From TrEMBL:
Belongs to the ribulose-phosphate 3-epimerase family. GO terms for biological process: carbohydrate metabolic process; pentose-phosphate shunt. This is Ribulose-phosphate 3-epimerase. It comes from the Eukaryota. It holds the Pfam family Ribul_P_3_epim. It catalyses: D-ribulose 5-phosphate = D-xylulose 5-phosphate. It comes from Dentiscutata erythropus. Keywords: Carbohydrate metabolism, Cobalt, Isomerase, Manganese, Metal-binding, Zinc. Binds 1 divalent metal cation per subunit.
Length: 214
């Protein structure tokens, strides 16, 4: 059964004190990784041994593999729409000893991932248009998550965009086990409580799915 992973996105953090905010979120030992999209990994790596899930919303992601590997990235996630040869890029990422993630935008058919599903560690289904935080969760993207979970039962399936206490149930029931949340965690009165709620809901739904396919 895929593990429940809650990934606070520092896109919603205070960029004047990212290290402090990141450590504050992790102090409760609830969060195994952070999701970031800029080469601030190097400076943050000095302060923590956290798993860095690096989501690159860039063209020509091939150019950035070595830089992110040297900076200390744990997982390199690129957009399938941005690569001319995803298979070759996957091999390049693995040669730098990083895990591999592939992202799809809301309008990209999920079958673009099918040839890559057994070669990657994670698929990120964007539930907002990539680029900025605070957007509304796109529920229609959940059909992509359901399709992926049925086709690749052991794959880490991540959702990013508009995830909050009001939308976590939809994502968890669809089969997502990696939840990226920015505003709903960093702006919460009690971030640890939000993280714990997310984790419990995902774990419950993953257990139900695992039992149903036994």
């Amino acid at each position: 059964m895929p593990q429940a992973i809650i990934a606070p996105s520092i896109l919603s953090g205070d960029f004047a004190q990212l290290a402090v905010e990141s450590q504050h979120i992790m102090d409760g030992h609830f969060v195994p990784n952070l999701t970031i999209g800029a080469p601030v990994v190097r400076s943050l790596r000095k302060h923590t041994n956290a798993f860095f899930d690096c989501h690159l919303m860039v063209s020509n992601p091939e150019k950035w593999v070595e830089d992110f590997a040297k900076a200390g990235a744990s997982l390199f996630c690129f957009h399938v729409e941005a690569s001319q040869d995803p298979g070759k890029l996957i091999d390049e990422i693995r040669s730098h000893e990083m895990k591999v993630g592939v992202a799809v935008k809301p309008k990209t058919p999920i079958d673009a991932i099918f040839p890559l599903g057994h070669k990657i560690d994670m698929c990120l289904v964007m539930t907002v248009e990539p680029g900025f935080g605070g957007q509304k969760f796109m529920e229609d993207c959940m059909s992509k998550v359901k399709t992926l979970r049925e086709k690749f039962p052991e794959l880490d399936i991540e959702v990013d965009g508009g995830l909050a206490l009001e939308t976590i149930d939809q994502a968890a029931k669809a089969g997502a086990n990696v939840i990226v949340a920015g505003t709903s965690i960093f702006k919460a009165n009690n971030p640890k409580e939000v993280i714990s709620t997310f984790r419990n809901k995902v774990t419950t739904e993953q257990a139900k799915y695992s039992k149903s396919v036994e």
